[in-house]
């Protein structure tokens, strides 16, 4: 049995919400729309087109794909100061790899942002067997496509995969893919993640290797 862990990125390995929210607010401000951070929360985990465009459209604007390009430019320029790497990220990647797990990242963001976040974490890209981004699938979370694509790319069967997620849409996507889901309460409450279908909920992924071993018994 080939065991796999599929990580979401934002809210799981890095806390990028302040950075992408700031970038989105700056883009929308440049278009003449003043927005507030709380307006973006409902679009967490749905991809950055929706994250930026959903709020813009609620204010009466019309979203264009180049707005995301500008948001990513701002994001990458400010990532060093605004993206927080969780203390568990590099540690659990190394430990899970040593336990024989196949590892993948499946993020609704585009590759530009994913690579930026991986650079913030450090030298972990070589430990990953697959990276899938929002650009690789047509349907976004809560559709299961991105996790199924990650499993396929990593040579994993969905039933042997555990997904680490922080968002309701991501938990729903993992369960729709026939995978087990570990929810971390960095973006949503334990009750919200459980209601979405999480098999296990934790406030820290430091113990993900132990959780994974228990789920695989």
Question: What is the fold's blueprint, element by element?
Answer:
Layout: E1 4-7, E2 14-15, H1 17-30, H2 48-58, H3 65-82, E3 84-85, H4 89-98, E4 102-107, H5 111-121, E5 130-133, H6 145-154, E6 161-165, H7 168-176, E7 180-184, H8 190-196, E8 200-202, H9 208-215
Parallel strand pairs: 1-4, 1-6, 4-5, 6-7, 7-8
Antiparallel strand pairs: 2-3
Helix pairs in contact: 1-2, 1-3, 2-3, 3-5
Architecture overview:
The structure is a single chain. By secondary structure, this protein is an alpha/beta fold. It has helices at 17-30, 48-58, 65-82, 89-98, 111-121, 145-154, 168-176, 190-196, 208-215; strands spanning 4-7, 14-15, 84-85, 102-107, 130-133, 161-165, 180-184, 200-202. The strands form 2 sheets. It has a 6-stranded parallel β-sheet with strand order 5-4-1-6-7-8, sandwiched between helices. It has a two-stranded antiparallel ribbon with strand order 2-3. Helix 2 packs across helix 3 (65-82).
